[in-house]
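MODEL INPUT / OUTPUT PAIR
PAIR INDEX: 1
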Amino acid sequence: MEKTNHSVQNQKDINYYAAIRKYLQKQYPKMDKTGVSALCREAVFAPGGYAVEIDGTDAPITAVRENLADFIERDNANKNFIPYSLDAEIADLIEKNNCETSSMNEYYRWISATADIVRHTGDGEVTESDASERSEFITMSYDRESEILLCLALYESAGREKNRGKIDMLRFKLARLREMRSIVRNTSGMVNAKSYEEKEKLRLYYDYCANLLSQKADYEPNLNLKLKLNINHSNDEDLEEDFSYLNYLRQVVLYMMRKLEKSSAENQRADNVSEIADTRENDTREQELGYMLSAVRENEGR
């Protein structure tokens, strides 16, 4: 029985987006499928300050969501929505899978790995393994940054105050991860350092990491040293207290969906134009151009 319940819940999760689209179609029966899909996209991902055009009128996205919620409630269909607590559960799972043991152990592993890379950079014998180590760390750092930003958005969606501790921890880790990546990048040109300046800078980078490893997680290194070594990330906009990771994620997804939609439409137009041109080989250039323009207009009207 438990397995069946999980199966039902998974099916509901998968149909979350489709459920919203279905109720929007019921709410706006005169709107075509393309319009409903676009409205669904905006309703799910657009930040609070956005507006969307409905029947020739710009409507605040917040009002669209409120009306949709009221409509669904009246239709007794609100059970199709994923509960907010699931967002936090997903974030917990992502972090657990990537941290391997614990969040703080991962934090110290980043610093230790950076210290090793700096040490290998100046030891006079840079191997292919050393180069691979540097490249893999940079790749990992960007992957983890994306995952952390996603988790921050999920925790925010589940309730910022309820998940305050987890959000603060991830913001702290994100800042340190960026610091470590900047150190790895900054030292890439110091392989087999020979000048005193380069050797001294490598020493300072290594000491910086070693100092972090010897301190508690909440330790904050000297700001002047961070500025001197160009590893200061405390002024990043997305590390500010009032930054909305949820809105940021929505903006990114919305941008990608719009871009994909535009690309798909352009590809469709190109296919249609190509098909028409292939059947008009004997026409004049002016006639071909006319057929192409007609095909484009036809697609734009769909």
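PAIR INDEX: 2
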Amino acid sequence: MMINMELTGTSGVQGTKITQTNRMTVILTALVAFISVSMLSSCGSTHKMSKVEHVVLPTTVLSSPRAFPQEIADSLGWGAMYEGTLGEEEEEFRVVLSSPISPYHALRIKKTKDIEGAYVLFWEKNAAIDVESPQRNIRWFIQGECKDFKETAQFEYCTPEWFEEPDWQRVYQKFDQSDIWTLEPADSLVRDSLSVEDQWVVHVEARVENYFRRYQYLSPDTYQMNSTSSDVLTMVSQMKNLRDATIQRDNFNVYRGYMKGPSGPEFVLCDESETWYFDGHLEDLVVTSAYPVLIEEASEQHFYVELRGQVRDQWYTEWFDQSYTRVIIPDEINEIQLISGPRCPF
């Protein structure tokens, strides 16, 4: 009997251990299954904007005054960034550079099976024609760069011609590498001690599938250098590369202004609305233009000049380091006068 009792007791302990082991196995199995489901769920919700503030579409998105004008987007058949549907892993972003100096610059990249790109110049309509200041008449100012000019209710726009069509895949990669989807907001950045009044704006709208965000930077060349400000300026540099790749033809505009010394470099327009960088020398101009005047080296003399040449925007890269909004490369001089001071004679 004792033996039987001992055997029975031992068997009960072993049964208890087996039951506890089975329970632990069930618990561990359930825990592993829960973790696996959680990981799969987490992976399913991960996207390029998951670590930054964004909205999930469809939802109401207010318009932004610095965004690419919706009426131009509609005219081009693009629609609004936050409307319609994008498929899995489909993306789109629009970057706009704007300032008090027209025209403004816009880039649109859309990634589906292929990558599509478009670069647009746009500006507000101006009913008045200022013959004396052709830079204010944007159609005149960029004539020869675009074949067709289009109008909407409030804007005009055109698509410049290219020397060679950009590699849009490479353009997309440059912006993607600059973290266009996840850049920190402007209020998290510190202004440099040499900051000037906000003059120009980089505005970005980005969308991945049904996730959307919008942000902008005021005069981003004035932020203290860090990874975010560096990425923003890299994007601006890419926009400048696109601008420089467009065809620049002589539009035969005559620009009037004054300068100190035969090589400037400050060329001040007569209405003093802008100061351009003068990339040339008056002595060379009078020779090539067969103008009957002799210019001696006179760095302290002021000159009034009427000239033609190529003009390129500089406001989105140069304002922090210098005050030039554009650069002019003169190729012909129409008139030159020696003047007594820094002002046009009429």
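PAIR 2 NOTE: The chain has three domains: 1-46, 55-244, 255-339.
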